[in-house]
Amino acid sequence: MDDTKLLIGGEWVSPPSAATFVTTDPADGTELAVCVEAGATEVDAAVAAARAALADPAWRDLPPAARARMLWRLADLLEEHCAELAEIESRDNGMPVGDARAFGVPAAAEHLRYFAGWCTKIEGAVAPVAFPDTLHYTRREPVGVCALIVPWNGPLLQACWKLAPALACGNTVILKPAEQTPLSALRLGELVREAGLPDGVVNILTGGPATGRLLVEHDGVDKVSFTGSTEVGRQIVRASAGNLKRLTLELGGKAPSIITDDVDLDAAVQGNVAGAMFNSGQVCAAFARLYVHRRRLDEFTEKFAAAAAAMPLGRGMDAGTRLGPLISEAHLARVDGYVRTAIDEGGEVVTGGQRAGGALAAGSFYEPTVVTGVTDDMTLAREEVFGPVVPIMPFDDYDEVVERSNALEYGLAASIWTQDLSTAHRLAARIRAGAIFINMLHVPDVAAPWGGFKASGWGREMGRYALDAYTEVKGVWTHLLDRADTTGREN
Fold it and tell me: What does UniProt list as catalytic (predicted)?
């Protein structure tokens, strides 16, 4: 892997005039690599390469089964290099290496295998139209050149969950990882070449928001798939208007978790600590506001705070680490700002509430934090923190908690913890969110749809729903002539 180069048209190129940026280890701030900041020239070149590959018979006319074998081969390569890729993720992102090795890399491979299976099953249909003697059928065809813009909180996995359906449907892509975590995407580019995909089918550009903006505005890009903040999602909608790009947007979240009075309290504490603190809370579907029935509030809060405080912080590469660092010093300052605001607005910090000191002082580590005394109008209850900071709030009845859960602009995910399945399913039907998790963690599966309601996004990824995101439907009409129409003689 050469971190000072870009993958364009099947070749690693190093633009002599391009700017560069440094990616660092959030555990101690040390430099990991110097990467290229792709500009207009590099974006134009990548788009041209992707468009050429889209029209090249080597990809355009490749049998679906052969395309499937390439995706399967790429999945095998990810698994063969699992330990290496997990270490890259841990050093660049800060996540515990055990999580990357046990979940992140295998899940990325599973996305590739799942969509390899769809390559041979992307079908059209015949519709019985009203016109007599007319055959109508549909074809699913690639959207075209797809810009895949990936966030920093799960770089390799989210790259593959966009890449896999895009390639399965016959598109070509330009992958832009987040500037904070570019290294796993660059290693993925090497494995893409080893898997035998034709030149230009996958291009990789590193860079920051300016690079992403160039891709979104480019008339040679037919689709953008973006995961990130709601505000940036709104900017993409505006910037994509030039050629009316197809968009898939997975945006912000503020997932409520509802803990009922009949709950298995210990199971709910364990599940909610994991759901709120996984990857140091840097997860779009993290349990970000806990609504606990008032009859169980004190006991739940006491146990939850004790369990959160006991979670070991450490470098992602250290054995036993449960919480790694936040992605950067800037993000740590933002997270801490939310805690300071919560205190100013009347909240009480039960545990945590500050950056970690001692041996971890040089890194961007923040203590797992629990805040009580929070009301729905306070900043901590309304805005996405994206860190290990959780407000715990009481509720008294289900109508009330549904209304409060639905009050925000977000609707990505929600969680319900109860031993009464009637209650669970009634609540699930009323909560406005794209995924509801009952008595379980917020772990999406490649076979199930993923995406949000309201300001949490447009469209769905994963499962058969991703085929809609990466194909256009074409209708073909044929009037069935009789012989008299063509020869002038009766049949």
Answer: 250
Determine the Cα–Cα distance for residues 261 and 179; give it in Å rounded to an integer.
Answer: 44
- Per the annotation, the verdict on 250 as an active-site residue is yes
Q: Which structural domains are found in the chain, ordered by start?
A: 6-251+452-476 (3.40.605.10), 255-438 (3.40.309.10)
| CB atoms near residue 71 (< 10 Å) | 26
Identify whether the C-beta of residue 379 lies closer than 8 Å to the C-beta of residue 341: yes
Place of tokens 């994991």: 274
Mean pLDDT of 436-449: 95
Q: How far apart (Å, rounded) are the C-alpha atoms in residues 185 and 85?
A: 10
Tokens of 350: 């039960």
Q: How confident is the model at residue 2 (pLDDT cuts 50, 70, 90)?
A: low
> Active site residue: 89, 110, 250, 384, which one?
250
pLDDT in tens, 41-98: 999 999 999 999 999 999 999 999 999 999 999 999 999 999 999 999 999 999 999 9
Alpha helices in 240-328 (DSSP H): 265-277, 297-309
